[in-house]
Structure formats: structure tokens, C-alpha cells
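Q: Sequence in, structure out?
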Amino acid sequence: MTGVNPRRRPPVEHDMWVIDGIPLHPLVVHAVVVLLPLAALGAVVIAISRALRRSLGLPVLLVALAGVASVPMATTTGEQLFLALGGQNPLVAEHQQRASWLLPVAVAFLVLLAAGVLTELAAVRAEVGAHAAPAATPTRYRVATGLTALAALVGLGAAAVVAWVGHAGSAAAWQGIGQ
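A: Exactly. Output:
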């Protein structure tokens, strides 16, 4: 049976995570590729408006959390695939090297976003008079806005790293195809 990629591939190792014989890495990578840039876009949106931060802050934070949680899974499955393919492709090695930058940037994004969203939610709670909450102050709102704006910038950086890593991975996967 011929596939899209006519190159011969070595057999998949038994200790690699697969779904129906297909390595899990290409599937897991798509979670990172979709969720982190989506969270970065959401961070930009909630940094612009306090009302949007109040209504969309937690959903954006949850998307970011899922995206960041997908990074170690993508790394693990990528290492498994690299070893199963023999570990000799310099393009894959470049992809791996670039991928080592992603988790620290993604975690920084998540921490800043969580700080901004949770600061905003604490201010809202204080505003409505929740018990044991210190009074809401304009400073608290400025801090929430600043943290969320900083998170948006770092999130855009994380999205750029995702694209940079993904480009190297695409080059490794599709080298020689269509030429």
C-alpha cells in the first residue's frame, strides 16, 4: 500500500506510544500548535478589556493550562519517535533543540496569565463584598491589567516559538517530498 510519503521508514519500536500503529507525536503536537497560540490570542483580548478579562479570563487560563500541559507529552513522544527512527536525522535534531525552548516560555506565559486573571478575580470578589477579601483598589486593577498585558506579550512569544519549532519539525518530516 502506498502512502503520501513514499520514503521507507524503519519499523516502529514497541516501547513507543502509538494509536493504530501511528506514532502519537504528530497527534499530540497539534494540541500544542492549536492551544498555545489560541491562549496567546485570548490573552491579548483579555488584556485589552477588563470586562472581557472578567468573563473570559478563566477560559483563556484553562486553554493555556491545557496547552502547556501538552508540551511535555509532545516532547516525550517526540523523543520516542526520534529513537524509533534511528536518531540520525540532523533536521530532527534541530527540531529537538528548538523544542527545548518551548516549555520555559510556555510556563512563564501560564504563570503571568494566572497571576493577571487571579488578581482580576480577587478584585472582582472584593468589589462585590465577599467576606475575607481586602477592598478592591484601583492599584489592584492596574496590577491585573499589567500582568495580563505582560502575559499577552509572553504568550505571543510562546506562539512564535511554537511556529519556530513547528517549522523545523515540518522540514524534517517533509524533506524531499514533492521535489
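The helical segments are 25-48, 50-84, 90-99, 102-127, 138-174.
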